[in-house]
């Protein structure tokens, strides 16, 4: 089987109004592959967060770049890679600082941003970030064939 | 995809904002623009209803954190209602639920 066979490629302008296009495409692909409602929603948030980071940080909202997306639909997993050639960052430093909001600190100190990568990490099964040239976020969601039942459980569970 | 923001003013100090659609990097600024002035009404009550919100991500959570901060600063009572189990999960994972509960 040709290994390229089940890969969807999409390039969108690095502008806020196109992030929903990537989200819709991921939703269609995930639905086609048989993911549960909850897993599809996880994938939609993850791809949106990666694209939002590219728009907001990679290109500083200037909208002069492009975001390259590949969705590799394997039999048991979907791997999405979101790549941009805009400004990079120190991934290891950022990844170490990933944490949810802290209710014990003063509200004025609570950050209004920085939850994007945290959510990607929480919602996807495997995440790797490469910052060698631009930024590439590679994230995998495994397809659990019994996912419908598990997915329903997951709604009420705090992870 | 756009959002439709409906605002209902019971009186000057009692406001309801309902969001229909998807809140993301494109639409979140619109919500922020609508919401923030209402959090600056001292002694007011502001309710954000997410009953018709089909999708949201960290950009929406950021707007809610900003609204909560401003509300507390201006002594305005801010609450979020109508969360779907899905949206509730995002609130819980990110810790925003604990922060909302603490400030209520």
Main traits of this protein?
heterodimer; A: 159 residues; alpha+beta; Heat Shock Protein 90; 5-stranded antiparallel beta sheet; 5 strands; 38% helix; B: 104 residues; alpha/beta; Transcription Regulator spoIIAA; 4 helices; 31% strand; globular; EC 2.7.11.1 (chain A); transferase (chain A); Anti-sigma B factor RsbW (chain A); kinase (chain A)
| Portion in helices of chain A | 25-40%
What shape does the CA trace of chain B take? globular
Instruction: Tell me the β content of chain B.
Output: 25-35%
- CATH class of chain B, please? Alpha Beta
Instruction: Indicate the radius of gyration of chain A in whole angstroms.
Output: 16 Å
**What are the secondary-structure elements of chain A, in order, as H or E?**
EHHEEHHEEH
Q: What value does the average pLDDT of chain B take?
A: 93
Helix content of chain B: 40-55%
For CATH, the homologous superfamily of chain B is named as STAS domain
How many DSSP-defined strands of chain A? 5
What is the terminal-to-terminal distance of chain A? 38 Å
Could you outline the blueprint of secondary structure elements for this entry?
The complex is a heterodimer of chains A (about 160) and B (about 100).
Chain A lengths: L6 E7 L5 H15 L3 H22 L7 E8 L3 E8 L6 H6 L19 H8 L2 E5 L4 E8 L4 H10 L3
Antiparallel strand pairs in A: 1-2, 2-3, 3-5, 4-5
Helix pairs in contact in A: 1-2, 2-4
Chain B lengths: L3 E8 L2 E10 L4 H12 L5 E5 L3 E4 L1 H16 L3 E5 L3 H10 L1 H8 L1
């Amino acid at each position: 089987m040709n290994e390229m066979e089940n890969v969807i490629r999409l390039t969108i302008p690095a502008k806020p109004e196109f992030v929903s296009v990537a989200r819709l495409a991921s939703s269609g692909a995930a639905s086609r592959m048989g993911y549960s409602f909850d897993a599809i929603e996880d994938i939609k948030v993850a791809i949106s967060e990666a694209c939002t980071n590219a728009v907001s940080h990679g290109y500083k909202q200037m909208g002069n770049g492009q975001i390259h997306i590949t969705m590799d639909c394997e039999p048991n997993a979907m791997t999405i890679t979101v790549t941009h050639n805009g400004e990079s960052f120190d991934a290891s430093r950022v990844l170490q600082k990933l944490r949810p909001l802290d209710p014990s600190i003063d509200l004025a100190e609570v950050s209004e941003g920085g939850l994007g990568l945290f959510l990607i990490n929480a919602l996807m099964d495997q995440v790797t970030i490469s910052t060698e040239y631009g930024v590439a976020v590679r994230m995998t969601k495994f397809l659990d064939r019994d996912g419908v039942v598990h997915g329903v459980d997951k709604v009420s569970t705090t992870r | 995809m756009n959002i439709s923001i409906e605002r209902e003013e019971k009186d000057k100090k009692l406001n309801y904002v309902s969001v229909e659609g998807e809140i993301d990097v494109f639409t979140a600024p619109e919500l922020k623009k609508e919401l923030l002035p209402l959090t600056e009404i001292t002694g007011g009550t502001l309710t954000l209803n997410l009953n018709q919100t089909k999708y949201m991500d960290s950009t929406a959570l950021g707007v809610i954190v900003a609204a909560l901060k401003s509300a507390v600063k201006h002594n305005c009572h801010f609450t979020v209602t109508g969360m779907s189990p899905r949206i509730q999960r995002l609130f819980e994972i990110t810790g925003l639920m604990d922060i909302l509960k603490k400030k209520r």
